[in-house]
Amino acid sequence: MHHLHSALIPSLCFACLLAADPAPVVQSPIAAELAKQEAAIADWTTKVATIRDEIQAAQTKAENDRGIPDLLAKIEAINKQVADIRSEILLTLAKLERDKGLHDMVAKIEAANQRIVDLKVQVRSEAFKPVAIPAASLDSGLICAVYNDPNVVQPNTATISANPIYLGKALAVDMEPRPGEENYTLDFQGYLKIESKGSYKFALNSDDGSFLYIGAALLIDNGGMHGMQRKEEILTLDVGYYPIRVQFYQGGGGAGLEFTWSKDGGEEKPLPGSVLYSLTSELAKVKPIAEAKAAGLVK
Asked: How many structural domains comprise the chain?
C-alpha cells in the first residue's frame, strides 16, 4: 500500500503523556494581616500602660505641679492615637472579611462552573459509543479524499463534490501548506481506536475551516474562512473503535491543519498512526501515488 506524499497528505507524530505537578501551598494573606495588626495593638497597649504609670507617679509626688496638665494632654493625645489605630484595625479586619467572602464566592462559582462542564461532558459522551467491528477487517491509516471545491469560499460549510480527484491513505491528520493552491477540500475518514477508557480532549487548529465528527455527530465546528484558529472539545470514551471523520477546506491565502488530543489532562500531541484505521476493503480503493502523479492529480 502506498502513502500520500503530496502537500495535502499527513505525517505521523507520537509522544508520551505527562502528569501535572501539584500546586504549591500558599500562605493565607488574611492570617498574615491579622497577626500583624494584633502585634500592633499589643505594642500600643504596653506604651499606654507605661505612660499611665508615669503619670500616676508624677501625680503622687506633686499633685499641684504645673506639669500635670501637660501630662494629661499627652495622655489624651496617646489615647486618641490608640483609638485611631483600633479604628484602622477594625476597618482592615472588615475589609479582609469582605475579601474572604468574595474569595469564597468566586471559589463556589468556579466549582459550580466546573460541575456544569463535567455534567456537559458526561451527557454528551453518552451519545458516543464504540462500534462492533472485527479488528481483522481493519488496517492502519485513514482514507483521505482530495476534492476541487470552489464552494469553500462560503464560510461554515463542509460541502464537497461527489467524486474526489485523488483517494489516498493517511497515517495522520495534517497537511503541509503549498502556496498558490486554493479551493480544495481534504476529507479524512476511518476509525479511531481507543485502547483505554478516559477523558479525551480533541483539538482542531486550522486555516481555513475544519470539522471533526465522531460517529455521525459533529463534535468540533471550526468552520469559516479564517487564519489559524483553534477549537477543542472533551469526551469520555470507552475502549473500542469509533468512526471518525475530519474535513478541512482551503479557500485562499495561508493554509494549515493540526489535529491533536490528550488523555486525562496529559500532554497534547498529534494523533499517532497506531490509533487510526480503515476497512481493508476501502483501503483497496486507494490509488498508487505514481498513478496519481501521472494523471496530474498531485504534484
From this structure: 2
Between the CA of residue 257 and those of 14, 17, 59, 231, 282, what are the distances in Å?
Answer: 17, 22, 91, 12, 24
In whole angstroms, give the CA distance from residue 211 to residue 219. 8
Model confidence pLDDT, tens digit, residues 92-109: 888 877 777 777 777 777
Using alpha carbons, select from 220, 213, 222, 144 the residue that is nearest to residue 185. 144
Mapping DSSP to helix (H, G, I), strand (E, B) and coil, where does residue 228 land? Answer: coil
Dump pLDDT digits (tens) for 156-197.
Answer: 445 555 677 778 888 899 876 555 678 888 899 999 999 999
DSSP state of 253: S
Q: What is the 3-state secondary structure (H, E, C) of 17-67?
A: CCCCCCCCCCCCHHHHHHHHHHHHHHHHHHHHHHHHHHHHHHHHHCCCCCH
Helix (H) / strand (E) element for 225: namely none
Q: Which three cell numbers stand for residue 165?
A: 480527484
Looking at residue 273, its amino acid is G
**Residue 41 is part of which domain span?**
29-125
Examine the domain organization and report whether 120 and 191 are in the same domain: no
Residues 115 and 231 in one domain: no
Tell me the three-class secondary structure of 183-226, residue by residue.
Answer: CEEEEEEEEEEECCCEEEEEEEEEECEEEEEECCEEEEEECCCC
Report the predicted TM-score, pTM, of the whole model to 2 decimal places: 0.57
**Domain stops at, among 91, 106, 125:** 125
Q: Is the dihedral of CA 281, 286, 288, 289 positive or negative?
A: negative
